[in-house]
Amino acid sequence: MNLLRRKSVTQLQADALTDFRLKRALGATNLTALGIGAIIGTGIFVLTGTVAAQNAGPAVVLSFVLAGVASIFAALCYSEFASLVPMAGSAYTYGYATLGELFAWIIGWDLILEYALGAVTVSIGFSFLHDIGIHIPAQLSAARGTLITLVDGTQVTAVFNLPAVIIIAIITFLLVIGIRESATVNNIIVFVKVAVVLLFIFGAAHAVNPANWHPFIPPSAGVRGQFGWSGVMQGAGIVFFAYIGFDAVSTAAQEAKNPQRDMPIGIIGSLLICTVLYIAVSALATGIVPYLQLDVPDPIAVAADHAGLGWMSALIKLGAIAGLSSVILVMLLGQSRIFWTMADDGLLPKFVSRVHPKFRTPWITTIVTGVVVAFFAALFTVREAGSLVSIGTLLAFVIVSVGVLVLRIREPELPRTFKTPAVWIVAPLGALSALYLMISLPWRTWERLMVWFVIGMIVYFFYGVHRSKLAQSRVSANPAGTSENVP
Q1: Which pLDDT does position 287 carry in this prediction?
Q2: What b/e sequence results for 421-437 when a residue is b if at least 16 CB atoms lie within 10 Å of its CB, and e otherwise?
Q3: Do residues 201 and 44 touch, judged by C-beta distance below 8 A?
Q4: Are 22 and 255 in contact (CB under 8 A)?
C-alpha cells in the first residue's frame, strides 16, 4: 500500500487540455470578480465587529493587515500552481501532484470543511434582513438556542436560521443551471457591493471620532486572545477566513478559458483590491462606533446608522446582503468542485462526479453541498463556523506553500507560465505565517478540526485508499514515492 503515490504533473497538464466535461467560460475579469465576490463579504459585513469587540479592539485593522500579508505569500504560490496545473481540485490536486495521495486526501477533506463552513458562516449573516424591512419571526432568524430580545423586552429562543436556508437553496439552484449564468450573476453582485463599500468609505468618513481608536490595542483582559497582542493575533487567525476568495478562484481553473494567463490575474488582483478595502472599512467602523458595541451580526450596518447616512444606510444594508450572496455562491462553487474532483479520482463514490448533460455542471455534488450547508447554517453561530474555516484555510496555505518548493526541487524543468518571485523566501514565509496564525486560534477550534480529520482518516482507509484511480491502476515498476500514471 503506497500512501504517497502521486499524480504526474505532465499527465495533469495533458488532461487539462483534453477534459471538456466542465464548460470553459471564464475570463480574467470573471475570475477576478469571483475572487472579489468571495473575499468581500463576511470579513467586512459580519466578522469585523465580533473580532473588534472580543479580540483586538480598534487593532482589528492590524489583524486584517497581518492576515492580508500572509495571504499574499500564499496567493503567489497558488498562482504558480494554478497556471501550472489548471484543474478544478485547487490545493487538493496540487498536493496530489507533489506530496502524494495521503496528503491530497487530508487537504481535500480539509477543503470540504473550509468551503462548506465558509458558506455556512456567510449565510448566517442573512439574519439581519429585518433591517431592510423583511420581517421574519425571531425564532426562525438565528442559530438554535440563541436568545433574542424582542422590541418589547421579552426574550425568545431561536429554533433555526430560515433566511440562511433560503439563500443557500437559491444559490444551489443557480450553480446547477450553469457556470456562465453563475458568473454573470456574480459579476453584477460584485459591482453592486464594491460600489456600496466605496459609498460607505466616503460617506461615513466624516463621522469618525478619533477617540474611539484609543487605546488602539486595548490591554489584555487576562484571557489569551482577548485584547493585547494575543488578541490581535487571534483576531488575525479568525478574520483570515475573509481572505479565502483567491483560494476559491483556483477551483475554477478547469472552467477558465486561458488558465495559464488568467488565473494569476484573478488570484492576485482580487486579493490586493480587497485587502485595501478591508483595512479602510475596519478602521472606519471602529472609528465611528466604540468597539465594544460592534459585537452584533451586522456591524457595518450599525456603523452606517451611527454615521447618520440616512438613505445611504438602507443602501449599504442592501449591498451587504448582495455581498454575502456572492460569497456563498463562490464558496459553494469551490466546495462542489473539490468534491467532484475527489470523486472523479475515486476517493469518494463515483456517482458523485457525474456532470449534468445539458448544463455541464457537477450537479450532484452541488446539490449535496447545498443540503449539508443549509443544515449547518440553520444551527451554527458565526463565530463557531468562522474559526473552523480559518484553520482549514491556513492548513491549505501551508501545504500549497510547501508543495511549490517540493515541485521546484523535484521537477525544476517544468515550463511555468507564472513563477512565484523569490520563491525560497516567499514560500517558507507563507507556510510559517499560516502556521503562526493557526497556533493563535482557540484550542476548541483545534479540537473540532482534529475530530473532522479523524472522521476523514476513517473514510480514507476504509474506502478511498483501495478505490482511488491510482490504487486501481496496475502498479508499474516505479519505486515508492515516484509518479504513478493512470493508464
Answers
A1: 93
A2: eebeebbebbbebbbeb
A3: no
A4: yes
pLDDT of residue 145: 60
Length of the chain as a residue count: 487
What is the grid cell recorded at 486? 493512470
Three-state DSSP string of the chain? CCCCCECCHHHHHHHHHHCCCCCCCECHHHHHHHHHHHHCCHHHHCHHHHHHHHHHHHHHHHHHHHHHHHHHHHHHHHHHHHHHCCCCCCHHHHHHHHCCHHHHHHHHHHHHHHHHHHHHHHHHHHHHHHHHCCCCCHHHECCCCCEEECCCCCEEECCCEHHHHHHHHHHHHHHHHCHHHHHHHHHHHHHHHHHHHHHHHHHHHHHCCHHHHCCCCCCCCCCCCCCHHHHHHHHHHHHHHHHCHHHHHHCCHHHECCHHHHHHHHHHHHHHHHHHHHHHHHHHHHHHCCHHHCCCCCHHHHHHHHCCCCHHHHHHHHHHHHHHHHHHHHHHHHHHHHHHHHHHCCCCCHHHHCCCCCCCCCHHHHHHHHHHHHHHHCCCCHHHHHHHHHHHHHHHHHHHHHHHHHHHHHCCCCCCCCCCCCHHHHHHHHHHHHHHHHHHCCHHHHHHHHHHHHHHHHHHHHHHHHHCHHHHCCCCCCCCCCECCCC
Write down the pLDDT at residue 127.
60
Sign of torsion over alpha carbons 173, 175, 181, 186? positive
Mean pLDDT, each 10-residue run in order, the chain (487 residues) = 83 79 85 88 73 90 89 91 83 89 91 81 65 65 63 70 84 87 87 87 90 90 85 84 76 86 90 90 92 82 82 72 81 85 89 82 87 79 66 85 92 88 93 85 84 92 89 57 43
How confident is the model at residue 60, as a pLDDT? 92
Residues forming a β-bridge with 148:
156
What residues have CB less than 8 Å from 340, skipping those under 6 apart? 88, 352, 353, 362, 365
pLDDT of residue 481: 46
The answer to whether 238 and 162 are in contact (CB under 8 A) is: no
Q: Which CATH superfamily is domain 29-471 in?
A: Amino acid/polyamine transporter I (1.20.1740.10)
For position 383, what pLDDT does the model report? 61
Q: Would you say 142 and 163 are in contact if contact means Cβ atoms under 8 Å apart?
A: no
Q: Return d(Cα 25, Cα 254) in angstroms, integer.
A: 10
Q: Note the pLDDT of residue 288.
A: 93
pLDDT value, residue 432 = 92
The pTM for the full model equals 0.79
